[in-house]
Amino acid sequence: MLLKGKKGIISGALDENSIAWKVAERCFEEGAKFTLTNAPIALRMGKINELSEKCSSRVIAADLTSVEDIQNLYNESNDFLNGKVDFILHSVGMSPNVRKSKEYGNLNYDWLMKTLDISAISFHKMMQIAEKNQILNKWSSIVGLSYIAAQRTFPFYSDMAEAKSLLESITRSYGYRLGNTCKTRVNTISQSPTITTAGSGIEGFKAFYNYAEKMSPLGNADASECANYCIFLFSDLSRKITMQNLFHDGGFSNTGISEDIIDQFS
Length: 266
What we know:
By secondary structure, the chain is α/β, with parallel strands linked by helices. It contains ten helices and seven strands. Helix content is 45%, strand content 17%. β1 (7-11), α1 (19-29) and β2 (33-38) form a beta-alpha-beta unit.
């Protein structure tokens, strides 16, 4: 088992469609012990307690924009895991502007700040508090979930594009720092559009999902395949991979146009 004896923290599992849910299931199958966390409102809406029972885990409510909540998350995780952690998954993102269908030229700036805090700055907070509390084992691995809108423009993605760009910048900066201090590696996975409860709520998602499927020579990577990639990054097989944004998208990121798309317009 790739993660036998490893301990970690997984954020963002809402229901069985969530990438984080699939990651938790695979971590458990590979022998890891971990805690699960999400915002209090998400815990009320989702099924995370079912996942906790299935994986012999513990659910700890935490708003990852709150330093106090993250500190409590680490304290409770340390008690449950009986020690430091070997991996952390940051799978949290939300834009009030997207949810409220605000056009990019008419953003609410208070909501923009909330988008950045929830979707990117929370990643920095998790690492800064982890570093200060010395909760990371040597050769641990931290993974965040990103999207290609950090590099390319997708109109429907709005201010989440800025959040993902910031997330990837934080990955490089903190990856360098943690690599020097405790050999911890930090990476993001730039995932295909994925059918999740959160993603499916974005206007135009179905059309773009189908477009990406036709553009990608291997097709879109689904949530279970992303979970497998996370397992690899948490495992000792990836010990020298850090500060990277790793595209996991069936080849979409390097494809200019496909025959399927050409045929559709011929």
